[in-house]
Amino acid sequence: MERPLLQALEHPGPLPAVLLVDEVDRADEDFEAFCFELLGEGSLTVPEIGTLTAAYPPIAVLTSNRTRDLHDALKRRCLYHWIDYPDLAQVVEIVRRRVPAAAEPLAEQAAAAVERLRRLDLQKPPGVAEVIDWVHALQLLGVESLDTEAGEQTLGSVLKYREDRDLARQQLAGWVDSA
Q1: What is the DSSP code string of 98-162?
Q2: What predicted TM-score, i.e. pTM, was given to this entire model?
Q3: Could you tell me the CA-to-CA distances from 115 to 31, 90, 92, 125, 165 in Å, in that order?
Q4: Pairing state of beta strands 59-62 and 18-21?
Q5: Stretch (H or E) spanning 164
Q6: What is the pLDDT of residues 43-96, one digit of tens each?
Q7: Is 103 exposed, middle or buried (0-12, 13-18, 19+ CB in 10 A)?
């Protein structure tokens, strides 16, 4: 069955295909070996078929959240680009586009509160997706302006570990109201 790796190899060109391998660190080591061969040689060996070589080796974009370390040989074949969180104004704009029905100040208040949470030593700092989920949950509950009570009730939309929640409550008393 032709999946994205084979499709990228068989791309007719003249420009190379662009292949996105999202969260490669969550894949197993066999898949990592496929990526290694694809990046290093522009080919894939499939036991039932043989070795397929690309006429135009694909440009591969690999993303990682560093849930596990990748093999050194794979890392050597990659260029790295670290992406920081977007600034407050960008997050607010993203949230407003994704949750347009939310009250006007809610996106800004939630984004500012999450920025404050990220300054803590959390196991899983919240990303933009968590801000979107949080504003969506608040909007569904009819919240128009973020306050401590609404924040506490919906904290699970933002923080995914009990220890992170406890740390936020301990170190940021009134963390929502002062955001």
Answers
A1: H-TTS-HHHHHHHHHHHHHHHTS--SS---HHHHHHHHHHHHHTT--S--HHHHHHTGGGT--SH
A2: 0.73
A3: 35, 12, 11, 9, 15
A4: parallel
A5: helix 162-171
A6: 988 888 899 899 999 999 999 888 788 888 888 888 889 889 999 999 999 999
A7: middle
Query: In this structure, are residues 118 and 84 in contact, taking their beta carbons and an 8 Å threshold?
Result: no
b/e burial code for range 19-38 (CB count within 10 A of at least 16 → b): bebeebeebeeeebbebbbb
Three-state DSSP at 54 gives: coil
Q: Any idea where the domains of the chain sit in the sequence?
A: 4-76, 88-171
Q: Rounded to 5 degrees, what angle do the CA atoms 35, 41, 43 make? A: 70
Kindly report the three-state secondary structure assignment for every residue of 65-89.
CCCCCCCHHHHHCCCCCCCCCCCHH
Dist. CA 65–CA 170, nearest whole Å: 27
